[in-house]
């Protein structure tokens, strides 16, 4: 029989018998014939027609596989894939008759094995009570591979993508069924796994022969795949590096694939880190603000933050891609990495698909400028994204936060006697004389310490304290004059004796503002952020502070109720009126009065952006449920004061002291891990610690 005749039987056959029968007589390839066009509709029996609307019956979950019916459904799902592979191999033989004879013979050999796989699945699923064709079948394989333009497309899409993914799925499910005591199904999957090693190896051989020799396997593979295909389709949840080494893939390819992420269906959100929003508004800069050495370090050393805000199917924009070795350590610690795209060169050309929402750290003119190429791909309106920048400037102003707090205390929150009194709220001064008058007023009320803040100040910076009735003079006086000249006013407020700091996190949408949770903040004596902890509200507290937090609601902190309900409702009204949507954080603290009473200052400032507290809250997904965890940012000079040479020395010691322990669900039960590369970080190190004393 001619190879062409056999391929036509498989591809155009209307029955399973035609598609799955292999001739006993020798097959020759002396008349390959003319190229055949891809059929507009794949010929199949009526009960196996491809469902254009997608899968209607999803594969069963692992815990359901102890039931025969559910096992049969899973095998039905696998069986369709094997039949599609058989038909696609027939198509490649007919579509490219001029391909090298040894390639065509290799495809024929693989096709025969795919027929056997299909038959094995059919027989086993029948024993489980399911007949092939009684459930809808999906045509994704056909839709994405059949339009191939050349044999290189074929080996890239089928051999190195879908068959490579089966190195993970077949081995993983073989183990699952073996553990369940289903040796028969496990044996089938083990055979398919061993065959797939050979099939992927065959594809790799020809891929290397046809790709550009100067291009690495990984670069060529990634470039050859076109959306909706991506390297994400070439792997399963249980990544089998050993199988890929047996195939002959190199270490770089295996590492890059294990780290690669791209959404397989959900429209992704795009995260972008622009931490200098306050500085940008203070300078009224149309693009990137002028940053000093400290703020440049913030941008560079904390650039990984979008990776921890994004989910697996999202996109994190970064200025420089972290080293592969470092990303592997994050992955080994249980972090599900998003798709990482470097914003260098013509980076926006990598977006060939719709995106859901744009999620910069803060909406500013520079963020709009950077993300503008993506506005047209955003499923939300372009104008909505652009309009958020001026709205966020209004909210960034610390004088607005002070006025809003006073309004709430004078009206809605007046009955709550555990809140700070209205006379302790900061006020703005538009001149130096007015600032001095406010300082005198606060001192007359019994507040001996004062703090002057720039309306737009970054992370506890741009403020000056006057302790023990210190006069405003010298460098502090010059600073105040400069801020008033640059920002038109200055905020003057009492400096209170902080006991514990909080950060309440919200997400504002078109339909309302949602409370996400509270993180405990650890700040320096000057009020600058060092760390944020989750599930640690009542740890290391004195008895009177614990009683203050829990007194109003037995067993539950009343502060949690206040921020979730009372403050959340008021914030919702304000944000809806301003038409702002996006992340919002409110900094607050408990302080001790001069007569030793405890009070809550519910609003220190409102941040219309992501905050470090929000980062800590989002990172709870990698920690074992309810375990206390701490996200910290440590300066180089701080660890040097502890006696460490550099960040690498410090992290090695901390990881030895708090070794990582993951539970069965790959969540961190205990341990310490750096979040930016300690071998690369210059001045700031991000870390995450679950359990233990931070």
Task: Explain how this protein is built.
The chain has 694 residues and is α+β, with helices and mostly antiparallel strands. It folds into five domains: 1-29 and 66-146; 148-260; 270-391, no CATH class; 398-609, 2-Layer Sandwich (D-amino Acid Aminotransferase, Chain A, domain 1), CATH 3.30.470; 623-694, no CATH class. It contains 24 helices and 19 strands. The strands form four sheets. Strands 15-14-11-12-13-16-19-18-17 form a nine-stranded antiparallel β-sheet. Strands 5-4-3-6 form a four-stranded parallel β-sheet. The radius of gyration is 31 Å and the shape is elongated.
Question: What is shown here, in short?
Answer:
This protein is 44% helix and 16% strand. It has 694 residues and is of the alpha+beta class. It has five domains: 1-29 and 66-146; 148-260; 270-391, no CATH class; 398-609, D-amino Acid Aminotransferase, Chain A, domain 1 (2-Layer Sandwich), CATH 3.30.470; 623-694, no CATH class.
Largest sheet: 9 strands, antiparallel
Contiguous helical run count: 24
Text of the CATH class of the largest domain: Alpha Beta
CATH fold type of the largest domain: D-amino Acid Aminotransferase, Chain A, domain 1
Tell me the helix content: 40-55%
Q: What class would the helix/strand composition place it in?
A: alpha+beta
Overall geometric form: elongated
Q: How many E strands?
A: 19
Q: What's the architecture of the largest domain, going by CATH?
A: 2-Layer Sandwich
Percent range for β-strand residues? 15-25%
- Radius of gyration from the alpha-carbon trace, in angstroms: 31 Å
What is the overall pLDDT average? 92
The structural domain count equals 5
Strand order of the largest sheet: 15-14-11-12-13-16-19-18-17
pLDDT < 50 runs, ≥5 residues: none
Quote the distance from N terminus to C terminus: 74 Å
